[in-house]
Specification:
GO molecular function, one term: peptidase activity
Largest sheet: 8 strands, mixed
Distance between the termini: 117 Å
CATH architecture of the largest domain: Beta Barrel
GO biological process, one term: proteolysis
GO cellular component, one term: cell periphery
Number of strands: 32
Shape: extended
Subcellular location: Membrane
Structural class: alpha+beta
Number of helices: 13
CATH topology of the largest domain: Cathepsin D, subunit A, domain 1
CATH superfamily of the largest domain: Acid Proteases
InterPro entries: Immunoregulatory_rcpt-like, Pepsin-like_dom, PEPTIDASE_A1, Peptidase_aspartic_dom_sf
Number of domains: 3
Radius of gyration: 58 Å
CATH class of the largest domain: Mainly Beta
Length: 713
């Protein structure tokens, strides 16, 4: 019995949702109450591309499509063109011509224009009808919805036509009809009953203007700061009005001109307002309107019912270059966590009114006092804001609009309806045989693994071989001799004495002091021994008498240490260990105490030898090396010096000792000044004592009855 297993195959039975639809702007800025980005639609097209084209504005609250009707009483051909009527059948159009329509025009009668309650004007009636409505300019490719409510407007209050985005149903006494957005969604032309919209701004990008954006079934991410937006719930399915809380309004002039910021709502507090693009006005509380009047130097005109801006005020407002920030929340109370801020520059309020709103073009400010307690943020507000409306979920988002120069590439985001289910992985059954590998496949896997292991081993071998070759080719390690910069060392090295250098534990690279005097560098060839460069401790024979022999000198004759056969002789001092010298290597001493007489150098003989009177200059303090050599201990050694064979030498030595006793009886022996030194840097616990006459007597006794050499040079 075979086994089965589950596999994930995509279920293709769910149809892909339609993409959002972008209603292309006309590229022009139209209107008699300002410059507004308009959009193209066509009326009466029978899918042959023979519909009548109109440039219209967007109405977020209107449920119908409205276009101008011919109005010869007040609007001529040029006026009709400004109202958005375009050329039809090769000639200028004064409005929608019902007799020339290629669509199934059906007139329903004259009825009121459906506008929300907050618009208080007594608008004239309009002709209602049923006609095909297409998006964009008329062509064989334009999307068309049949039997839509179309209103023909002959009044002056609504100069331009409008394309309504409200949902629900509206009609006359003959019956209600659903709106265009609802029918467009039901026709599966868009993902859901939703849209994204911004009005655009004619003053942006160096007064070149940025057109508006309308996306049906989604929004354009490149035109909105979604992350900075405020999401608000609608009241109900029957009341989908876009109501927000205006928690504060702040006036801020250019800080380089006037360092001041003022709140227009500090006294009156916040309020609820409706976002509606049908008209440009801001319908606000009277107290807040008074702040606008004062700051922008506005003057109310009773005839036009507009706030006008004269040339002086206009120049002052341009200089102030103030901004007005609307802080929005879900209620009228201020919230520090849930809000968004829409900031409008003065250019957003700098509008021009023209015929028939004003006889002559004049600057006006889109501000109105609310007479009925209903407040509106009109089309002016939507120049700097972007709204995303989702009727499916009964919520909307208002956020700052994005402006860039050049404009960013379009980035559409669909909004799916609640009934749409994205494709999911559906489990299906697969036979057992389909889930196992064939013998050939298994063999292939095994061969691949073996080859991979062999390649890895081969690579490791070559790596090891290369590393071994590199190590063999590398030069042997040698420690680089240390060098001391005598300039950087300063006087520390400059005044260091030879005896102090001997006591320091310098490395192999320690600087070698020059040795002067008898063993000068120039006479090194004459010297049988190399000069001493460093000494850890002075030899015992430097300042100590020679060792005493076990037997006293015979015949009571004292051997003369200094004179032997009237010849001055030197004895090389040997070191057992010192610094860089090998043990037992004899090394000459440059200057040694105890020889004030003549001596023989280079074949020249000096006969007379004075007594070894030591000067005070030869007295030295504790040395670093005294930690290693105790001179007093050497002096006190009990071994007597062996008898000298030469009696004359003994007599001469005895005579010399007597002279030393007589001359040094009252004065202690002194050392030569060149060897005087103070306390050492490293120790002060050992001092070299001056030699007494008794010590000198023992010192003068040489070994094997051979006179000792003088030790000074």
């Amino acid at each position: 019995m075979g086994h089965t297993k589950r596999a994930n195959n995509v279920n293709t039975t769910v149809p892909a949702p339609p993409k959002p639809y972008v209603l292309a702007p006309s590229g022009k800025f139209d209107g008699n109450d300002g410059k507004w980005s308009s959009f193209n639609i066509n009326i009466g097209d029978d899918a042959t591309g023979r519909g009548q084209n109109f440039r219209v504005l967007i109405s977020t609250s209107s449920p119908v499509t409205m276009v101008p009707a011919p109005s010869p009483n007040w609007c001529d051909q040029d006026c009709s063109s400004k109202r958005g009527a375009q050329v039809f059948d090769g000639k200028p159009s004064s409005g929608f011509e019902t007799q020339s329509s290629h669509g199934p025009w059906q007139e329903l009668g004259i009825f009121n224009t459906p506008l929300p309650d907050w618009w208080s004007q007594n608008l004239s009636n309009a002709v209602w009808g049923s006609e095909n409505v297409g998006l964009g300019e008329s062509s064989a490719l334009s999307l068309i919805l049949p039997k839509q409510n179309v209103l023909l407007n002959q009044g002056q209050e609504l100069f331009m036509g409008s394309f309504g985005l409200a949902n629900g149903a509206v009609g006359t006494g003959t019956g209600a009809k659903t709106t265009f957005l609802v029918d467009f969604d039901n026709a599966d032309q868009i993902p859901s009953m939703s849209y994204g919209y911004t009005a655009g701004a004619s003053y942006r990008n160096g007064q070149k203007g940025v057109t508006g954006s309308l996306v049906l079934g989604g929004y354009d991410k490149s035109r909105v700061k979604v992350d900075s937006g405020l999401s608000v719930k609608m009241a109900s399915e029957k009341n989908t009005t876009l109501i927000v809380g205006v928690t504060s309004i702040t006036y801020r002039p250019d800080q380089d001109v006037e360092a001041n910021t003022e709140s227009f709502t500090a006294r009156s507090g916040g309020f609820l307002a409706t976002i509606d693009s049908t008209l440009p006005y801001l319908w606000l509380p009277e107290a807040i309107c008074n702040f606008f009047v004062d700051k922008f130097q506005l003057e109310y005109d009773n005839k036009t019912e507009l706030y006008l801006v004269d040339s002086s005020a206009h120049q002052n407002n341009k200089q102030q270059n103030a901004t007005v920030s609307f802080k929005l929340g879900t209620s009228a109370q201020d919230s520090s966590t849930t809000f968004t801020t829409i900031t409008l520059p003065y250019d957003a309020f700098d509008l021009q009114a023209s015929y028939p709103l004003s006889e002559n073009g004049t600057n006006y400010f889109p501000l109105k006092k609310s007479p009925n307690g209903m407040f509106v943020l009109g089309r002016t507000f939507l120049q700097e804001s972007y709204i995303i409306v989702d009727y499916e979920r009964l919520n909307f988002t208002v956020a700052p609009a994005i402006y860039s120069d050049p404009t960013l590439e379009q980035s559409l985001v669909p909004i799916y309806n609640k009934t749409y289910t994205p494709p999911t992985a559906t489990p299906t059954l697969i036979p057992h045989g389909g889930g196992s590998l064939s013998p050939g496949a298994v063999a292939g896997v095994v061969v691949g693994v073996v080859i991979a292991l062999l390649l890895a081993a081969l690579g490791g071998f070559f790596w090891w071989r290369k590393r071994r070759a590199d190590q063999a080719a590398a030069p042997p390690y040698t420690e680089k001799a240390q060098e001391i910069d005598t300039i950087a060392a300063g006087t520390e090295v400059k005044h260091r004495r030879v005896s102090e250098l001997d006591s320091e534990s310098g490395g192999p690279g320690s600087p070698k002091p020059s040795v002067g005097g008898y063993y000068d560098r120039d006479a090194k060839d004459l010297s049988p021994f190399p000069p001493i460069s460093e000494m850890e401790s002075p030899p015992a024979e430097l300042y100590s008498p020679p060792p005493m022999a076990n037997t006293p000198p015979s015949d009571g004759v004292v051997s003369d240490y200094f004179i032997a056969g009237n010849r001055v002789r030197r004895r090389g001092a040997t070191r057992e260990s010192s610094g860089n010298n090998t043990p037992g290597t004899p090394a000459p001493i440059a200057e040694l105490p105890g020889d004030d007489g003549e001596y023989q150098v280079g074949g020249v003989h000096f006969d007379k030898v004075e007594s070894p009177k030591l000067s005070s200059a030869h007295v030295r303090g504790p040395s670093d090396s005294s930690l290693h050599s105790n001179i007093d201990e050497v002096v006190a050694r009990p071994e007597p010096s062996p008898e000298r064979s030469n009696i004359d030498v003994k007599e001469k030595a005895q005579q010399t000792l007597d002279n030393v006793k007589e001359e040094g009886e009252d004065t202690p022996p002194e050392r030569r000044p060149s060897h005087a030194r103070g306390l050492s840097d490293t120790t002060d616990d050992t001092a070299v004592s001056a030699m007494t006459p008794e010590e000198m007597e023992q010192w003068a006794l040489g070994e094997d009855n051979v006179p000792m050499r003088p030790l000074s040079g």
